């Protein structure tokens, strides 16, 4: 039996990223997808019309390959892989019916770019602790990649990170298709932390754009951000890594510059004068960077890395300081 035969993959989450990942997986022969979404109306619509009515609604969802479930316990039954694709803030709620016995023996893949709130833990660490899963049995899907471009079948790249390359390699094969190339790498923590932090930077890009700053400023902001991300990642998990590769710099660039970035859009609204509440109400989608800003700031009380951009975003989002004034101060620190 070849590696790609009859692989069962549970996908937990019903948003844009879950829908895009399912589209990629459906490109493989002999893959069965067991999909859990929380929204009963969406479940019924998908079963009947084979489209997700709420996210990426143009994507055709093959009924031959996909079974939709109301319960996570049913979705993960018999699965070889379980992909988590809910926003980090809701991961505990989404997995509340599952225990270690449901997940034992399965590879757990986090497609989440965020941290478990309050506990300020990476998703893979939390899965390992909460469900007794060996960290080597987990991996993460990072970018640079937006769901909307996958839906349009635009050439995209994914980074699949695990503690050891061979286990990322298996999963990368499943995520590679005509329009997606998935590359494995052995830097679980580095990729996961960088993916969390780039969302904060995208917020900063959006805020400054909303305030009227231009491309010249953003280029300097993003360059400084790369240093900030690198310093934080190294403090948390010191080792050699090429921060200018796609898994780190690429993931930052796509989110900082793309029209599809949720975090940039959210930041842009804040820069234009929306309150956090108003911006959240206006955006149907979730900007992970909002939650990540709090987690990274709290974690950094122990690590004391210089994080001027993250601090600026924290002051704006959580201390209600005026974006214009905070960015005036930040711009003096950038080089
Ligand atoms: N979109 C992208 O291009 C990429 C996203 N990611 C990551 O994927 C993860 C999922 O994001 P994405 O798919 O974009 O999210 P979306 O913003 O597209 O969708 C939000 C999802 O969250 C659910 N949700 C909202 N509120 C709650 C709640 N209170 N409890 C439980 N679920 C809730 C929504 O369910 P409902 O519709 O029922 O409200 C929906 O399924 C994030 O960590 C993101 O960073 C990573 C790479 C690319
Ligand atoms: O992580 C993502 C793309 O790599 C999605 O986040 P944004 O939508 O904010 O860019």
UniProtKB/TrEMBL annotation:
The protein, known as: Glycerol-3-phosphate dehydrogenase [NAD(P)+]
Pathway assigned to this chain's UniProt record: Membrane lipid metabolism; glycerophospholipid metabolism
Homology family: Belongs to the NAD-dependent glycerol-3-phosphate dehydrogenase family.
Gene Ontology terms, MF aspect: glycerol-3-phosphate dehydrogenase (NAD+) activity; glycerol-3-phosphate dehydrogenase (NADP+) activity; NAD binding
Binding site for substrate: 113, 262-263
EC number: 1.1.1.94
Residue ranges constituting the Glycerol-3-phosphate dehydrogenase NAD-dependent N-terminal domain according to the UniProt record: 8-164
Active site, UniProt feature: 198
BP GO terms, sorted: carbohydrate metabolic process; glycerol-3-phosphate biosynthetic process; glycerol-3-phosphate catabolic process; glycerophospholipid metabolic process; phospholipid biosynthetic process
Source organism superkingdom: Bacteria
Entry GO terms, CC: cytosol
Catalytic activity: sn-glycerol 3-phosphate + NAD(+) = dihydroxyacetone phosphate + NADH + H(+); sn-glycerol 3-phosphate + NADP(+) = dihydroxyacetone phosphate + NADPH + H(+)
UniProt xrefs under PROSITE patterns: NAD_G3PDH (PS00957)
EC category: oxidoreductase
Location within or outside the cell: Cytoplasm
InterPro entries (alphabetical): 6-PGluconate_DH-like_C_sf, 6PGD_dom2, G3P_DH_NAD-dep, G3P_DH_NAD-dep_C, G3P_DH_NAD-dep_N, NAD(P)-bd_dom_sf
Residues where sn-glycerol 3-phosphate binds: 113, 143, 198, 251, 261-263
The keyword Cytoplasm is assigned to this record: yes
Residue ranges of domain Glycerol-3-phosphate dehydrogenase NAD-dependent C-terminal in the record: 187-326
Function: Catalyzes the reduction of the glycolytic intermediate dihydroxyacetone phosphate (DHAP) to sn-glycerol 3-phosphate (G3P), the key precursor for phospholipid synthesis.
Keywords (A to Z) from UniProt: Cytoplasm, Lipid biosynthesis, Lipid metabolism, NAD, NADP, Nucleotide-binding, Oxidoreductase, Phospholipid biosynthesis, Phospholipid metabolism
Residues annotated for NAD(+) binding in this entry: 90, 147, 262
Binding locations of NADPH: 16-17, 38, 55, 113, 147, 262, 286, 288
């Amino acid at each position: 039996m070849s590696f790609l035969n009859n692989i069962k993959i549970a996908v937990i989450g019903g948003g844009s990223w879950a829908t895009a990942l399912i589209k990629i997986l459906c490109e493989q022969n002999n893959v069965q997808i067991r999909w859990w979404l929380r929204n009963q109306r969406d479940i019924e619509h998908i079963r009947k019309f084979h489209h997700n009515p709420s996210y990426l609604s143009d994507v055709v969802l093959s009924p031959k390959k996909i079974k939709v479930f109301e319960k996570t316990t049913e979705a993960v039954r018999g699965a070889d892989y379980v992909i988590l694709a809910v926003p980090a803030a809701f991961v505990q709620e989404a997995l509340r019916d599952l225990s270690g016995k449901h997940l034992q023996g399965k590879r757990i893949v986090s497609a989440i770019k965020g941290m478990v709130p309050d506990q300020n833990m990476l998703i893979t660490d939390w899965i390992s602790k909460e469900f007794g899963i060996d960290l080597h049995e987990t991996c993460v899907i990072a970018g640079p990649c937006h769901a909307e471009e996958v839906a349009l079948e635009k050439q995209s790249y994914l980074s699949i990170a695990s503690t050891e390359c061979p286990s990322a390699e298996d999963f990368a094969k499943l995520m590679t298709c005509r329009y997606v190339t998935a590359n494995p790498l052995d830097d679980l923590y580095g990729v996961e932390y960088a993916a969390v932090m780039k969302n904060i930077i995208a917020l900063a890009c959006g805020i400054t754009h909303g305030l009227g700053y231009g491309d010249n400023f953003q280029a300097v902001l993003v360059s400084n951000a790369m240093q900030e991300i690198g310093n934080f990642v190294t403090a948390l998990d010191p080792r050699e890594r090429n921060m200018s590769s796609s898994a780190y710099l690429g993931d930052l660039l796509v989110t900082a510059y793309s029209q599809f970035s949720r975090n940039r859009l959210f930041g842009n609204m804040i820069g234009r004068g929306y309150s956090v509440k108003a911006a959240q109400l206006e955006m149907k989608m979730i900007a992970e960077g909002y939650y990540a800003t709090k987690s990274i700031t709290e974690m950094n009380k122990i690590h004391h890395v210089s994080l001027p951009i993250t601090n600026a975003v924290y002051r704006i989002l959580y201390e209600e300081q005026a974006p214009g004034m905070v960015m005036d101060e930040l711009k003096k620190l950038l080089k």
